[in-house]
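User: Structure please.
Assistant: Input sequence and predicted structure:
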Amino acid sequence: MTDASWETLSNQAVAAAGVVYFLALLSHLVEWAGLRRLPADEQVTTGRTAMAGRLGLLLTGIAAMVHVVALVGRGMAADPNRVPWGNMYEFTLSGSFFVTVIYLACYRRFRLAWMGPIVVAFVLSALMVAAIWLHDPVAPLTEALLSPWLVIHVVSAVIATGAFTIGGICSVLYLLKERSKAERGYLARLPEPPALDRVSYRMHAFGFPVWTFAVLITGPIWAHQAWSSYWNWDPKEVWAFITWVVYAAYLHARATVGWKGRNAAYVALVGLATLWFNFIGINYFSSSSQHSYAGVVGDGSTATEVRS
């Protein structure tokens, strides 16, 4: 296959993944529409409702596999072949993919069926944003990105981002569930607040050491290799460290002060806000960051000011 064929395949796979994610979302909505009419303590789900839930999970798994094709095609379309992490479009594809992977990996362990519609809606929205506003033609990596540390640093960063995002979703649902008095509907069928709090904590406890590895170990090593300095006070480096401090405070408060529930959820959401501002905001609001991905201009054969 030619590079153009790989790029076309990647674009088509993104569209196909979006369609399958949308069908998965519809299945989950059908499931929850059926459950809405039942009391919250009624656990028996049969017929169309149970089938819709299983179909939603199956379609999410299929969408994840198509999502992989989109990422592989993107990397194979470049000359030379590379990892698909050269600009914001590719980072968004990768980050949303890892949200799906972590959800599926933890589905049975933490009984996350209730999270299905939220996760699928989030990933579908991310793909739509990527395809409509962030898409760039495939281009070679800039010199700073030509390093094996790119793979190590970015993989750990996106895995942590996926875990923090799911943990943040749990925190939002915790706050909504805590205030809700509904006996029917989606909120009524969520786990009790302590269970949501535990899932949130476990996701953050998993993501934090991975984020530490990405931000405080592999990031500085890569920076030294690329720019001869372990720390450059780059806006993205600073905000990544701010995110680390917030999540460190979250885990420290839980371990020493005994913060749980509402207070912990608020801190987790502050961390999520800094995380996503670092991921998206810096690239649009900072003109000095060496991590700003300005995309590709012209005929797509060269990248201008695409910095790592």
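The chain has a mean pLDDT of 87.
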